[in-house]
Amino acid sequence: MTPSTPTNDRRAPTSASLPAPIRAGAFWAAVLLPFCALGLLASGLSSPVEYAAFVSLVAVNVLALIAGHDHGAE
């Protein structure tokens, strides 16, 4: 008896559909953005603008991690 293939395969979309230069840029952005966030944290989050900048950096970093995850996997 052979195993059946599930019909409701719900895998998350991968970044393999993105062009290689975009994946590479996202990968290196994900590497470098935490240093910017650390610099912002080291100076202190004393104003709402600095707090918004930090939250934005973290959000962009997460997106870059997702988009650049498959870089170099080929």
Automatic annotation (TrEMBL):
It comes from the Archaea. The chain crosses the membrane at residues 20-42, 49-68. InterPro entries: DUF8028. Keywords: Membrane, Transmembrane, Transmembrane helix. This is Uncharacterized protein. It comes from Natronomonas aquatica. Pfam families: DUF8028.
